[in-house]
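Can't attach files on this board, so I'm pasting raw text. These are the components:
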Amino acid sequence: MTLCFEDFPPGHFGTFGPRRVTREEMLAFAAEFDPQPMHLDEEAAKRSMLNGLSGSGWYLCSVMMRMMFDGFIGRTASLGSPGVNELRWLAPLRPGDDLTLDIDIAEARVSRSRPDTGIVTFRAVIRNAAGQALCEMVSPIIVSRRADAAAEQAG
Amino acid sequence: MRFFEDIEIGQRRELGSFTFTADLIKKFARQFDPQRFHLDEEEGRKSLFGGLAASGWHVGSVCMKLLVADGQRQAAEAAARGEKLAVWGPSPGFRDLRWIKPVLAGDVISYASEIESLRVSEKRPEWGILQARNTGTNQRGELAFSVLATAFVPRRSASS
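---
Top answer:
Structure tokens for the assembled complex are below.
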């Protein structure tokens, strides 16, 4: 069944994963979008602030998007997202990491401008297998309301 | 790349432009964001976007790509002048990222970066921390993408 606005009450929504990050995928992303030595070159990475080869933050965001898609967005009546309120990269992503994604719903409200939709603001945290948080994001998505719920309010 | 001491609030750099072809949009989407409006023209037309639309993470990742390329150009210029190279550090994150207009197949996005704030790191005094407003503007002059990004930048004094 497709998830609608009504399926996202505030509180813990779910835990998704694990997803293995391969060295090959991590390096391919860095080569295409973020070819800084700390993301590509083992020796240069050792001398960097992150003390070893680390994934691009934008790669981690993209993997997080894929984990959200596989976890729930793929079966949600999602109309897209207007943006990201805040995103923090907390610790380096390493090749071979097994990532887990936790989703909490911070706020869910009906859209004033488009009352057949709602705005669901969620907090996402990605952790490695040791439980260390690597990335935290707060972001809204626009989700359709159930037809009967929207009609009831309109009527 | 520049050192912390060479950077001033309000400095703006044009980073160049990027054409989001249908093939590139679908390739990124298949791997990272396979929502129907990022994969199929007809589904895109039926969506709020009104056409095959790039994943927002694709639009952000291309901004990073052009930022790195601009940094490499600056590094090459500095090397040609015989100056010491500044190697930038990682980013602790960003705020206020907005996907303002959809980026549709064929759109050409011009990216720019403007310095908004500068401070010295308290925990790592050999580093400065900057905030830059990075933007993407489409071929019609409409702002499509905007983000306030943070980055660690080395201080010249610490490296001499």
